[in-house]
Amino acid sequence: WAAGGGGGIGNPWWWAPPANIFTYAGGDANAPTVTADADVGLNVVWNVPVGGDVMRILYKTLSNPAGDFEFIYHDEALNNNINFATPIVGIGDFTKNYRIFVNQYNNGLGYGDFRFKFGYNGGGGGTNFLGTGNATWNVHTRFKKTGGNFEIAQSHDGKFWTVMWTGTIAANFGGVNPDHVCFGVSYNRGTGFPIVQNVDRFSLTGTAV
Fold first, then answer.
1. Contact yes or no for 112/103 (Cβ under 8 A)
2. What is the pLDDT of residues 45-88, one digit of tens each?
3. I want to staple 188 with a disulfide (CB 3.0 to 4.6 A). Which of 50, 89, 105, 124 is the partner?
4. Dihedral sign of CA atoms 153, 155, 161, 163 in order
5. Nearest CA to 8 among 44, 36, 38?
6. For residues 19 and 21, what is the distance between their CA atoms, to the nearest angstrom?
7. Host H or E run for residue 68
8. Which residues of 173-186 are buried (b: 16+ CB within 10 A; e: fewer)?
9. What is the structure's pLDDT at 165?
10. Separation CA 186–CA 32 (nearest Å)
11. How many Cα atoms occupy the beta-carbon half-sphere of 52 within 13 Å?
12. Which of 188, 171, 172, 57 is nearest to 113 (CA)?
């Protein structure tokens, strides 16, 4: 899904989809509140999860997982002084119940990891396949699948990209094509505070969509 047009003041590049294209999934029933704002995109409030350290996501299903796609995402975390409250963005497969995501592991430090993990337990688990601190937050992140190849890239301006990781679907993800894209939170520790995000870029295009 991709929308044209401008965005809020100072952000002429954003695309914000309607909130109703997303479906909630996660480790407990405490879904976020999502409000469309003409100036900032989607305002998303993730309240403290009932189940403790659990991952929760809003996802968009890919109608043709065998196809190609490009997923570009940007948000702004409004309360980024909360340690161990972890916003994420990624892709996944519901059949094998895995997710590949960028994890802002420590919100107070402003960096994160690239992780591969199963299930909905907290974001500290799973395989950290690029080493700690290799992901940057509050930048644009792009997930791109072309044939059997997969790529993750990041950009400070949303135009010029640095490839962070590339590999094949068969060798790295068990040959299973991703069937959804997602964003959300993965509490690594209970903080007692909500995470608030403004999602101001969510572009999803390609034959998989």
1. yes
2. 988 776 667 788 899 999 999 999 999 998 877 765 666 667 78
3. 124
4. negative
5. 38
6. 6
7. none
8. beeebbbbbbbbbb
9. 83
10. 13
11. 3
12. 188
Residue 104 in contact with residue 115, Cβ under 8 Å? no
Two tokens, residue 125:
């688990």
Which tokens in the block code for residue 78?
Answer: 């409004």
d(CA 124, CA 128): 9
Name the pTM for this structure: 0.85
Can you read off the two tokens belonging to residue 122?
């907290």
What's the CA gap between 105 and 187, in Å, rounded? Answer: 9
State the amino acid at position 43 in one-letter form. Answer: N
Task: Give the tokens for residue 94.
Answer: 């519901």
- Condensed to tens digits (0 to 9), the pLDDT of residues 119-151 reads 666 555 555 555 555 556 667 889 999 999 989
Nearest 5 degrees, angle CA 118-CA 124-CA 126? Answer: 30
The contacts of residue 54 (CB under 8 Å, 6+ apart) are 26, 27, 28, 120, 121, 122, 186, 187
